[in-house]
Amino acid sequence: ETAMAAQMTDAHRRFLQVLMSHGIMEGSEARKLHRRCCEIHKVYYAHDKLDDFVSTINSHLQPLFMQIRKGLSEGDGRAHYVLVNLAETEITKMASDYTENELELFRKTMDLIISSENGFASSTDILNLADQLKTKKMKKKEAEQVLKVFVEDKWLSERNGEYTLHTRCIIEMEQYILSNYQDMARKCYICHSLAIQSQVCDSCGIRMHLPCVRKCFRAQTDPRCPHCNDCWSCDIP
Question: Which residues of the chain have pLDDT under 50?
């Protein structure tokens, strides 16, 4: 790495500040921000150098146990950038923002999502857990509010009353989930990152993200599992 490349500039600092205030940023937004930061601070800009720009920031974040991580959304496969705190596990970081019974509800929701076939948990199932919490039972109304906050804070995302883990949550918590849910958490057969929303092969049990399924079977009229070669039984998204 040349001394030039490792230099942290005001453009890098601005980029980091904006990302910090958002927590997560979609790839196209991050590319726009990269350009804007370089223009404002008159720093050399190359449109295909965002990842280099980010790794310069990361080399300066290392002593602070922080890192900008890039990951893909499970729904559409788009890149996202997330600022991750490496010094504490995510659950302890959440502990400063939520009460004990809210955290317990989150953990139980996570259990449901990770143990499900497709990576979703219904609001009915989640709300049924609310009055079984060990820390302090929650009324349904209260639990609904808490779920709303988890969605606003980008830990969960919701579609038609079905909840799954937000992209930010997956990127931040991947290690936590893989080590705490060893018997249930699976990686995608294609991209090898954690797969929550996914399809499963009926025959051999491998999992694939929906965007990876699309890519894998794009040109196939008779889709077969890339692992065991049996017919792929799920509908191609």
Answer: 1-5
